[in-house]
Design a protein that fits this description.
The complex is a heterodimer of chains A (86) and B (258). Chain A is built from three helices and no strands. With 86 residues, chain A is mainly α. In chain A, helix 1 crosses helix 2 and helix 1 packs across helix 3. With 258 residues, chain B is of the alpha/beta class. Chain B has a seven-stranded mixed β-sheet, sandwiched between helices. The interface between A and B is medium-sized, with 11 and 13 residues.
């Protein structure tokens, strides 16, 4: 999966699980402020991401620092690269 | 000539604000003292003689509601409040979700004709008067309890027929903008299958403004919109549900005259 495919897949999760219009899903968009997710929605988001990408990220401390869509894309690209190396 | 007229209008409007504030705060202080002197011993005696916890809680909540209604009318005739119920036939309990523009919102909820408790943020608990009575009435302090405990306490209240009022923006917007919603109240409703009733409050963004105690004359309109039933939202997750309810409220608020 290329970076742009991965970004597209992340956007699919937001569009499908949360009905967020795709035009709002820009790299700068803040997950809490702009997209309106709260801490409990993030639990649902993590579950949807785990299902979509078949990864286990729930206990990863790095998730806590994610604020924007860009942070999320970077994080998932990093996870993908780690999986490739392994 | 026009400049003189405008100047007179400004002076008149300032005088109006001064008169309103002197009038309101005097009446409000008197009402608060009267409430303390009469209602508190009455509730205490009722509890002592009746020994029925449920009836006492009902009385405390009704008393707070009467106090809110009294406060709401202290600004009359310069502050007028109109309540419109778009679905009066619907039966409680509800999870009411209201927009939050001003500190007066909590008082304005006294127009709701059912037994209610509010979900409180941290700051109102710091006010001794509010803290004491909200504890007596069993208000829910969502930020001071684990989420599971909040769901459990909320479920018990709804099962008991008590409606719950939430301000899902979490804090006063201080403007006409509707902030993002937190999902706790929606998750509670989903947990028990309760009806979610949107309530919009408009016209009170300066009664008083955020960070001020100065009231401005105005007309407040509180609208209780038709509730969203469990059957209508069962396919939605909490985010979609809160987004749809927020959209309904936003459309209604946008249609209100500024």
């Amino acid at each position: 999966m290329t970076d742009s495919e991965l970004i597209q897949a992340v956007n699919d999760v937001f569009a499908d699980s949360f009905e967020i219009p795709r035009e709002k899903l820009t790299p700068e968009a803040q997950i809490f402020g702009d997209l309106g997710l709260d801490s409990l929605d993030v639990v649902d988001l993590v579950a949807a991401i785990q299902k979509k990408f078949n990864v286990q990220v729930r206990d990863d401390e790095r998730i806590r620092s994610i604020r924007s869509m860009q942070d999320l894309y970077h994080y998932l690209i990093m996870i993908r690269n780690e999986q490739k190396k392994a | 000539m026009e400049a003189l007229m405008a100047q007179r209008k400004t002076v008149l409007s300032r005088l109006c604000i001064v008169w309103l504030n002197v009038w309101f705060w005097s009446l409000f202080a008197a009402a608060s003292i009267l409430f303390l002197v009469l209602a508190v011993p009455y509730v205490y005696l009722f509890d002592l003689l009746g020994r029925n916890r449920r009836r006492t809680l009902w009385l405390v909540r009704r008393t707070i509601s009467h106090y809110g209604a009294t406060a709401m009318h202290c600004g009359w005739p310069l502050i007028r409040v109109r309540f419109i119920d778009y679905a009066p036939q619907e039966k409680p309990p509800f999870v009411f979700v209201a927009n939050h523009r001003s500190a007066s919102d909590a008082f304005l909820m006294s127009v709701l004709p059912v037994e209610c408790v509010e979900i409180l943020n941290i700051w109102p608990s710091r006010l001794p008067f509010v803290n004491c009575f909200s504890r007596l009435a069993g208000y829910l302090r969502v930020r001071e309890m684990p989420f599971d405990q909040f769901i459990e306490a909320g479920s018990r209240l709804l099962a008991d027929g008590v409606s719950i009022i939430a301000f899902p923006e979490g804090t006063r917007s201080g403007s006409c903008q509707l902030g993002q919603f937190h999902g706790s109240a929606f998750r509670l409703a989903q947990h028990v299958g309760a009806k979610i009733c949107p309530v919009t409050i408009s016209g009170n963004e300066h009664i008083p403004s955020r960070g001020s105690l100065v009231l401005h004359p105005g007309r407040i309109v509180i609208s209780k919109l038709p509730a969203v039933t469990c059957e209508q939202y069962q396919e939605l997750n909490a985010y979609r549900l809160k987004t749809r309810v927020r959209e309904t409220m936003r459309k209604h608020l946008d249609a209100q005259p500024v």
